[in-house]
What we know:
The complex is a heterotrimer of chains A (422), B (330) and C (89). Chain A is α+β, with helices and mostly antiparallel strands and 422 residues long. Chain A has two domains: 2-195, CATH 2.40.50.100; 221-421, 2-Layer Sandwich (Chloramphenicol Acetyltransferase), CATH 3.30.559.10. Chain A contains ten helices and 19 strands. In chain A, helix 2 runs parallel beside helix 3 (161-176), helix 7 packs across helix 8 (313-329) and helix 7 (254-268) packs across helix 10. Mean pLDDT of chain A is 79; it is low at 80-126 and 172-197. Chain B is globular and about 60 Å long. The radius of gyration of chain C is 12 Å and the shape is globular. Chain C has a single domain, classed as Non-ribosomal Peptide Synthetase Peptidyl Carrier Protein, Chain A (Orthogonal Bundle), CATH 1.10.1200.10. The longest helix of chain C is centred in the N-terminal third of the chain and has 19 residues, at 2-20. The chains are: A alpha+beta (422), B alpha/beta (330), C mainly alpha (89).
Amino acid sequence: MSKPYRMPSLGAGMEDGTVIEWHVEPGQRVRRGDVVGVVDTEKGAIEIEIWEDAEVLEIVADPGTKVPVGEPLLVLAGQGDDDDRSPSAQESVEAATPGSAEAESPALEDVWDESEAAPEAAPVEAAPRLRVSPVARRRARELRVELESLEGSGPGGAITLADVESAARGEAGEEEAPDSAGQEPPSSPPRPKDEEPGDKDRHAAMRKAIAVAMTRSKREIPHYYLAHAFSLERTLRWLSRVNEERRPAERLLLASLYLKAVAKSVREFPEFNGFWDDGGFRPAPGVHPGMAISLRGGGLVAPAIHDADQRSLEELTKGIRDLVQRARSGHLRGSEVADPTITLTSLGDRGVETVFGVIYPPQVAIVGVGSVVERPWAVGGMVGSHRVVTLTLAADHRASDGHRGSLFLDRIARHFETPEDL
Amino acid sequence: MKTTYREAVREAIREAMHRDERVFLMGEDVGRYGGCYAVSKGLLEEFGPERIRDTPLAESGFTGAGIGAALGGMRPIVEIMTVNFSFLALDQIVNNAATLLHMSGGAFNVPLVIRMATGGGRQVAAQHSRSLEGWYAHIPGLRIVAPATLDDARGMLWSALEDPDPVILFEHVLLYNMEGELPEQAGPVSIEGAAVRREGTDVSLITFGIGVFKALEAAEVLAEEGVSAEVLDLRSLRPLDDRAILETVRKTHRAVIIDEGWRSGGISAEISARITEGAFYDLDAPPARVCGVEVPTPYPEHLERAALPQVPDIVEAARGLLSGGEGDVA
Amino acid sequence: MNESHQARVQAGIRDAFRRIAPEIDLDAIDPTANLRDEADLDSVDALNLIVLLDEKLGVEIPESDYGQIATLRDMARYLEARLSDEPES
């Protein structure tokens, strides 16, 4: 069951990426979630992950190679034999499929959309159609053999049933072979400095990517905007109390509260968590808010914090700190860049009062959090000085309406105001 | 019992004459001459001129008479010397025999059996070498049968006579001299359904009539190369045995259809279409056809041989589906 | 004594900055200007900086002291002072 591992699409507008380095070598076994290499994109250097347990058979794209989205980077041997498919192997393949589909499908469609919408973009050329006999195609699907990696032996070089079955058998045979070589950690030669794409180019590329995505967003998405200001006094006091007793490494970030409040709320308002594509709304199965992180020197990334609704504030804080640090140093992972289901943008403590976001397509909502400001605030007939924050929602009117948006925003605020329950 | 295809057909006629007095044979030279291919030799003496009737050279006339007799309760066997001459009787066959049951609202069926010799390979040139089974197989209301083996030659006639509708039996001219063993007590066989003549796993050679034996020979050659060919004898061309065709294709995933007739609009086209329609997702290669070259069959021996499907052509077509090579799939 | 603290603090700050803001040239930053503005550090960077200083120097900066480390110079002084408070090991 050999199959190609392809250049992932890491967001709207990405057309290709340049391989910077590999962390794997032929013969090596990889596990689902492993980072196998680094690819340079307009979003910076992104660590790309593998989506199943497999063995690396071949490196197709050497470092320095520019590879279009969807083209093979590696050839992998998956697990399992057709006749004796162990449940675990099957499970892992099946488990991997939705994950990778989730990671790729909305973004891939974006590439097509963009090529259509932006005339200056090179037209995406259809790959030459593989010659595959009908039964070979059917069997390949059954055996989960990737046809693209096969050499056809049939008439006109067509891939035949025998090619598919021998490929499936071949890998099964290798599976059984002892894999002493596979256990060695990979030696990844350090990348020569001069191969590094220029920062200027990268910034230009990132600007272009942002331009494409945001232009598309404003052109296609009928945004509506809601804002809600509320007192954070109680929340901030709670946070100070908590952090007072903690070492720096254990302190909570206010951003983790934002994140958790949004993640918990969106579970109750699923129409804000997902994608608008193919003319309809597709809710996302998981809650993976993207954190908008502005990069010094310009540019913006919004990598995902996976399953934020199920994580503690401590885990979220660690996640955010780790993500920001890696965003700064260019070590984001493909899944983080490709997976967000809703975006959260926060101006932090040094910005202005209110931010209205632009939705990152094909997502359908972006929640904005302004800076905390001190304001006169009336509570129960008494005016006092409160630290106040303005929460905003920009949402896709095709997927949801203002009434629900308003309830959603209010729910976020309520969660926010009761941090001890987050 | 050692016998020939010719004798097997004769035995079938004799048996039918004995079993059912409504049965009679008529056609050109079937009586005194004993039949153009000597099938009816001796029958005139045995059954007399009432039941073994020589006719004028008038296919339309005596085929029409056969239809009338059948309508009148008889069980006529009309021998048309070769398919080439049946054109003269087309109106009777297509407009009358095939339609009367339907046009009479089911009141009149036509229990007629027409036997015709078919095919080339005897150096008798274009006007005497046609294989137009596909033409007749096109016509609803007819049942088209092509006995290839001795058993079928011996057994199909009775079943055809039993059938309430017109049945045309095509006997390939090169088969009459074919010798083989036939049990003493050989009796009727069904005229329905195809038969696997050789089991195989890699490629199906689908054919009928003389093609069966060419395919069996080709299968031998292929076997030496390690290719296991299955040979399907269609036997009935109308109706086609879809189940058997799709079954063998689903088993081997490759099909070569062999038909002496021309490929354009021929029975091979119909079979290929049904395979594609019914077993597309089981195909490992496009269906291949080995058919008569689309020219009027040449007279010179070497040209005639080149114009008709031969064993090496079948072998090559099968190889083409199995091996990579250049692959001349269009 | 004081000099060694100074050196440790300088090394610690540099090290921490390399991690949280590798693109920042620390020498180009006005030591009397607001550090977060100068280096464009957001709240997450700021917390990462505090965590790293704790790891490198063993100085826990409580949230209530954040106001005392607003500039690079203040930060260095604060850290040196905190180091001096602690018993030598």
